[in-house]
Every structure is written in structure tokens, then in C-alpha cells.
Amino acid sequence: MRKIRSSAAYLTDLLPYDPKYLPARIYLNANESPYGLPAPVREDLIEMFSEQTLHRYPDPLAKSLRERIAEVNHRKEEEVLLGNGGDELLFDILLAYGGAGRKLLTAPPSFSSYELDAFLTSTELIEVPRIEQPCYKAGQKTAKLAVLEASVLERVGRGDIDVVMLASPNNPSGDTLCEDFVVELLNVSDALVLIDQAYLEFADSRFDLLRHLDEHENLVILRTFSKAYALAGVRLGYLFASQSIVNELFKVRQPYSVDAVSALAGKVVMDNLEAFSQQIAESISERERVINALSAMVGVTVYSSEANFVLFQTKDAQRLWQDLYDEKGILLRDFSSAPYLGDCLRVSIGTPEENDEFLAACRKKLGVAL
């Protein structure tokens, strides 16, 4: 029997995306909702699922859900596009606006899919790394991994950048972008500017940039059902953009990428947004408690966050990660060897009980500063 021929040469040294999944007792590694769907939402979903005709192909564009998202956000249906998670939509953007001879600008450390998607689409990656700055917030001792605004504006202003991808709140650092900076960025060139707002529901409402869509045809806002709305297992993301951008993305998206069950789950969530308000409020409150507690520990630098996770830095972070996992079954995300994130770990905000266990284990290992 002949051997199969080799895959494309550019895949030779590429490692597949690794979400670092391990079986654990307490999962604080993937920024998921620790609560699951509220009971009323779960009950509605079960009832509506029983009426689905799964032997038929779904509406290829999930029109009913697009309409509902547009209605809730006071936009037009034509400005909404759904995807198999936000990841598919990010890839579609680079399929449509990236490619050989084109450039993507990012501000690392940020979501690793930006870099991977650039590589897979032969898009040249231009990085303007963030810098650490002190962050002043009442009662908290934190730092911030800040975007170098002037450097980003200068680089984009040269006119050769085709796509910009920035997250607000950013993953894994949790910081947000200044509104005036985003507006200036949108004005400085005709590059497509993607603002990834997967964690917006955990941030102050002033960081919502959707209101700028009417004035800026090059703005794209990415959202997801995976975090605040507890549908990580469904894989459902969406974006807002001008109709001209959405029409271009139609050309490259996979047909039927949003299945009937995902579209149904999204519709039930959009019809029951208020049911999630208590869970979201508790995550925000718990985030502040975790930040304060970590800040009091010996040798720990905590980064301010407007998301449902906290990034922190400590000596021998990888050892702490391993000890928490081996001794307590608590799984964090280990960034200690990642570029720009030496000795950093990221902890997702869990239930109060899960956070108590995490903090108690850290205090035992690190101690509390006097």
C-alpha cells in the first residue's frame, strides 16, 4: 500500500491549537460561565427543542436569530452575521480581507487565534506589543497591559494595514480600550477594525462601542454567547458590521455553519436576557473580590480586569499552577511560558465557593503580605 502524500508544506512546523483541557474538580481555566443556564432558560430550551425538525437543513443564515439580535441591539438584520463561535467569524474576516500581500495588526498579548488565523490565510502579522503600566483604582493595587495607542495609530496611519484586531476587554489581560482611541483609529485609515467584545457583558456599559457603527463603515464588533450567556458548548458567535462588510463575509463563510440547535439556543437566550443579570452581577462582584485577595498576597502582581477572569503574575507560576492542579484539582490557564506573559496565570471567575477554594489554596502557597 502506498503512503499518503504529505500535507501542505506550510503545516510542517505548525502545532494545532491546544485549549489545555485536563480533567479537573474545579474548572477555572476557560472563562466559561460557572453557573450554566438559568432554570427558565433551560426549561424554554427543552420545550422548544422538542419541536425541532432535525432531519431538515437549518436556515443557512439563522434569520430568526439574526432578527432578534438586531432588534435587541437596535440595529438592522443586514448588519448581523452569525458564526460557529466567534472563532469562525475571525477566520472569515481574514479570508475576506486578509491573504497574501495583506497585513493584520494586533497588540499582543491577546487572543491567540488572531495570530493563528493570520498564518493560515498567509496574512502578514504586524504586532505592536502592549506595555505594563500601573493602574489606579480605588482600593486596588493592580497593573495594566496597555495598548500603545500612539504607536498603533502611527503604524495604521501609514496606510498599508488591511485589518486591525483588538479586544476590549482583552483576553488574557482583561483591560479595555479607550473610546477616543478607537474613534481615532477608525478615522486614521480605511482598514477594517475588528473590536472583539466577547466579554463585554462583564464590563461597564460605557465600553460598548456599538454606537459608533453608523459613523464608521470600517468598524466590526464581535460578540459571543459562550461567556456571559453560558453557551460555550453550543459554539455560537455573532458580529455587527456594515451591510457591505457582511455581504463580503457571506462569500467566504461555510454554509450551514450555525446548526439548528445552536440557533435555537441563541434565540432562547436573546428572549431571556434578564434571566442572566444576577449571574453576571455576581461574577463582577466576585472578580473584584478575587482581585483584592490576590493583590494582598506576597509577590503577586494583579492585572486590572473588566472581564470574567483575572490575570496575575507570581514567581514560579508554573509550579503554582501544577500544585493547585495536583493537590486541589483546581485548573487554571498557564501562560507562564507564553510571549509577553512570563510567570503569568489566568484564573476564570467561578462560583463564590470555587473562588474561596482557589484563594485559600493560593494563600497557603504564597502567604499574605503584611
Description:
This protein is α/β, with parallel strands linked by helices. Helices cover 34% and strands 18% of the residues. The strands form four sheets. The protein has a seven-stranded mixed beta sheet with strand order 2-10-9-8-7-3-4, with helices on both faces. A four-stranded antiparallel beta sheet has the order 11-12-15-14, covered by helices on one side. Strands 1-13 form a two-stranded parallel ribbon. Helix 1 (39-49) runs antiparallel to helix 8 (260-270) and helix 9 (277-295) runs parallel beside helix 11. It is globular.
CATH topology of the largest domain: Aspartate Aminotransferase, domain 2
Spatial arrangement of strands, main beta sheet: 2-10-9-8-7-3-4
State the oligomer: single chain
CATH class of the largest domain: Alpha Beta
Q: Give the distance, in angstroms, between the N- and C-terminal Cα atoms.
A: 70 Å
Give the overall silhouette. globular
Number of individual domains: 2
* Uncertain runs: none
Calculate Rg over CA atoms. 21 Å
Largest sheet: 7 strands, mixed
CATH architecture of the largest domain: 3-Layer(aba) Sandwich
Write down the secondary-structure element order: EHHEHEHEEEHEHEEEHHHEEHEEEH
CATH superfamily of the largest domain: Type I PLP-dependent aspartate aminotransferase-like (Major domain)
What structural category characterises the helix and strand content? Answer: alpha/beta
- The count of DSSP E runs of length 2 or more, i.e. the number of strands, is 15
